[in-house]
Amino acid sequence: MSDSEDVVKVESCVLGTKGHWDSAYDRELDCFEETGDVGEIWFGKSCLKTMCKGVSQLSELNKETSKIIDLGCGNGMTLIELSKLGFKKLDGSDYSDKGIELAKRIMEQEGFNHINYFVDDITDSKIEQYVYDAVLDKGTFDAIALSEDRDRMKQLYKQHVEHILKPDGIFVITSCNYTENELKLYYTSPQFEFIKNIQYPVFSFGGSKGTTQTTLIFKKK
């Protein structure tokens, strides 16, 4: 399968548009101002904690020195959890300024001040080459794959990860739309090699077994 081909056939929808996320985070920001509620945590708290615990156990990363970015960080709860696990050098980027504003407010509420949140768009990114020891994605690739121009956007996204990740850096991707095999097929390449997956509880339904999300870890060659 070439990079330009879809991993699976999906229809575009509002989840793949910036307007949707601006509106969603605007509502969540208003709600946070009124109630202190951080808003939706994609794939749930259990997935978030399991994924972050798996990241914290990677021998390739050092909590004090490894520089990590969460692409499409939204409300920033992934980086809050990593902060609680002891990681010090954390960035979060999102193309929604409302999402970044919400993430900053939540960081203040949680009592952290070392997470660097900023607005950035992969189609016109200002991030320099070979900056990060690890790139995290929890649902961002899923949303990109729902955009109207998804073939081009998926290719730009993959190139962006390659651009900002250091050689031997780690790419951690969590998806609820793609299976382990589909993600391996798309990302395993001359640039990336599959390292391992993060295990989630398995459920049974109709004689089949599976999980509601998949997290794979790749290393940049």
TrEMBL record:
<dbReference type="Pfam" id="PF13847">
    <property type="entry name" value="Methyltransf_31"/>
</dbReference>
<feature type="domain" description="Methyltransferase">
    <location>
        <begin position="64"/>
        <end position="184"/>
    </location>
</feature>
<keyword id="KW-0949">S-adenosyl-L-methionine</keyword>
<protein>
    <recommendedName>
        <fullName>Protein-lysine N-methyltransferase DDB_G0278427</fullName>
        <ecNumber>2.1.1.-</ecNumber>
    </recommendedName>
</protein>
<keyword id="KW-0963">Cytoplasm</keyword>
<comment type="function">
    <text>S-adenosyl-L-methionine-dependent protein-lysine N-methyltransferase that methylates elongation factor 1-alpha.</text>
</comment>
<dbReference type="GO" id="GO:0005737">
    <property type="term" value="C:cytoplasm"/>
</dbReference>
<dbReference type="GO" id="GO:0032259">
    <property type="term" value="P:methylation"/>
</dbReference>
<comment type="similarity">
    <text>Belongs to the class I-like SAM-binding methyltransferase superfamily. EFM4 family.</text>
</comment>
<dbReference type="InterPro" id="IPR029063">
    <property type="entry name" value="SAM-dependent_MTases_sf"/>
</dbReference>
<keyword id="KW-0808">Transferase</keyword>
<keyword id="KW-0489">Methyltransferase</keyword>
<dbReference type="InterPro" id="IPR025714">
    <property type="entry name" value="Methyltranfer_dom"/>
</dbReference>
<dbReference type="GO" id="GO:0016279">
    <property type="term" value="F:protein-lysine N-methyltransferase activity"/>
</dbReference>
<dbReference type="InterPro" id="IPR026635">
    <property type="entry name" value="Efm4/METTL10"/>
</dbReference>
